[in-house]
Amino acid sequence: MKDRNTIRFSDSDRGIRAAISFLQKGGLVAFPTETVYGLGADARDERAVADIYRAKGRPAHNPVIVHVADATAGQRLIDLPEAGLKAAEVFWPGPLTLVAPVRENSGIAPICRAGAETLAVRVPEHRLAQALLKAFSGPLAAPSANRSGQVSPTHADHVMEELSGRIDGVLDGGPCAVGLESTILGFDADGTARLLRPGGVSLEDLERALGTVHSDTIIDDTAPSAPGQLSSHYAPGARVRLNADAPSLGEAWLGFGPDPDRVSAISINLSPSGNLEEAGANLFAALRQLDEWLGESGVIAVAPIPEIGLGCAINDRLSRAAAPRD
Ligand code: AMP
Ligand code: MG
């Protein structure tokens, strides 16, 4: 379905107005958030959201996140338990998605929920995302703006590479500051918070604000009925070898902290100083770059990343990239 002329909208009032005019007509416009670029459409318009699924090649069983400008708008869409209200107060706007029962009068197209009774909602902090949501003055459904199964885009160029010809445009806001997708938090029947996907807000920060957060059920986009299994959702073409001390002969190197004595000609360091925020921001662009240099036959050896703070989300994405392919 390559039938659209994809426009790159500038970071300006004019760019935002042009983007809005497409969204109001049921079009598809990618926009930057602090996590990754999202592929936006009017979340009240069933046909527009169906076009998101088509453009991405996203399986129909995988629901999308709905973005709104502020917590008040978010609470009009979903019925949050006490821990959810607290999470919204502390972390919105920011890289946290909350999943809770949808309100009957939400006005959100059911396709966004892909059959679930719950809806995923986020309030992004990014200046351009905020400007777009305020000017649109409605909810935007926006999964990551990549072809299904590919690495999420953290630059407008990544969006163009994958979706040019399939969407109406991309609002170019430069690189994304966090660079990892949002943390997704759901709630048990008793109201206890449950981590569904590690992401831009760390488990440690969530627990500091909310008390206990269960973290033993991670969603699997490829088989939502069997949570907890690893999927190869974030898949580069090259193979990925984790927790490597150094690259073996012929392997590319993805470093973190000081590099080993012998590194490959093809190498990128996510953060030479061992800073997890910096590594998160660089991760997806680095995977794309190594992939482009290596092609399908290559192997990327990856340095160990500490399993703390944002390291948990980085390791989650790397494990998925390393998971066996179909
Ligand atoms: P992305 O395409 O990167 O924005 O991913 C959105 C993520 O949110 C996917 O992993 C979805 O499975 C998840 N998600 C969206 N809506 C829900 C929901 N109602 N319940 C559980 N997970 C959801
Ligand atoms: Mg995605």
Short characterization:
The protein is an alpha/beta fold. 30% of the residues lie in helices and 17% in strands.
The CATH topology of the largest domain: DHBP synthase
Ligand species: adenosine monophosphate, magnesium ion
Helix content: 25-40%
Write down the secondary-structure element order: EHEEHEHHEEHEHEEEHEEEEHEH
Taking the alpha carbons of the first and last residues, their distance comes to 24 Å
Count up the helices: 9
Class of secondary structure makeup: alpha/beta
Main sheet attributes: strand count, strand direction, barrel closure: 11 strands, mixed
Can you give the mean pLDDT?
A: 93
At the first level of CATH, what is the class of the largest domain? Alpha Beta
CA radius of gyration is 19 Å
Low-confidence stretches: 225-230
By DSSP, the count of extended strands is: 15
Count of domain modules: 2
Overall geometric form:
globular
Strand order of the largest sheet: 1-8-2-3-7-4-6-5-9-10-11
CATH homologous superfamily assignment of the largest domain: DHBP synthase
CATH architecture of the largest domain: Alpha-Beta Complex
